[in-house]
Structure formats: C-alpha cells, structure tokens
C-alpha cells in the first residue's frame, strides 16, 4: 500500500536558514566615526546582492564584517549558520575558508557608475 504525499501549502514550506544574517549590527571606527548602526540583513544561500552607496557609507566596513576581518561592536552576526566571534580561532579560520572576498583593483574610474562596473562583471558569464 502506498501513501499519497501532497506538497505543503504555499507559504508553509520550511524556509532554509539564511547564508548570512545580521541583526542590529553596528560598528564604530577608532576615533568615534560610526560606520554602521542597527543594520538588519538576511541573504539566502544562492541569492545575489549588490552593495551600492557613496564613499563613506559603510560598504567596505560591512564587507569586512562579513569576511570576519572586523568584529561588530553591537548586534548579532551569523554566517553559514555560525556566529564567528563565538568560535575558536581555528574554527573561525575554517569558516573564513568558505567565504570569498575579492577586492576591487584598480578602483572604479572617477566617472564610471557602479552599476556599469557590476554589469561589466557579468560579461564573462
């Protein structure tokens, strides 16, 4: 005898854990300059996100937090289901090996828009 299984109702399917989750994350640089304050963000595995903003908006600080090269001053940061700053140094290093951060070199030409640079990166695909 077989059992008929029906798919879950729309909106009730179990959602996978986000690849990264920030809740109330903030960071202040030495000298008191606030780079990020109360940032909430969730990104699902496989989701693509562009971080765009003017110089000094906190883009690089956010990326450094996500790469675990900076520790947030406030809030909660979770990467791949782990809280990096609660891990041992070795475990945090293993987590870092699963994260890729590629620095932009050379910087954007002064008159090139960020969206143009992002779209140019798709040319190789």
Walk me through the structure.
A 3-stranded antiparallel β-sheet has the order 2-1-3, covered by helices on one side. It is built from 3 helices and 3 strands, in the order ββαβαα. Helix content is about 20%, strand content about 20%. It has about 120 residues and is an alpha+beta fold. β1 (about 20-30) and β2 (about 35-45) form a beta hairpin. It has helices spanning about 60-65, 90-95, 115-120, and strands spanning about 20-30, 35-45, 75-80. It has a single domain (about 20-120), classed as P-loop containing nucleotide triphosphate hydrolases (Rossmann fold, 3-Layer(aba) Sandwich).
How many structural domains can be distinguished in the coordinates? 1
What proportion of the residues is helical, as a percent range?
A: 10-25%
Compute the CA-based radius of gyration: 19 Å
- Under the CATH scheme, which architecture would be assigned? 3-Layer(aba) Sandwich
- Specify the CATH class: Alpha Beta
User: CATH topology, anyone?
Assistant: Rossmann fold
- Structural class given helices, strands, pairing? alpha+beta
Morphology: globular
Secondary-structure element series: EEHEHH
What integer is the average pLDDT?
Answer: 83
Report the end-to-end length measured between terminal Cα atoms. Answer: 49 Å
Main sheet summary: 3 strands, antiparallel
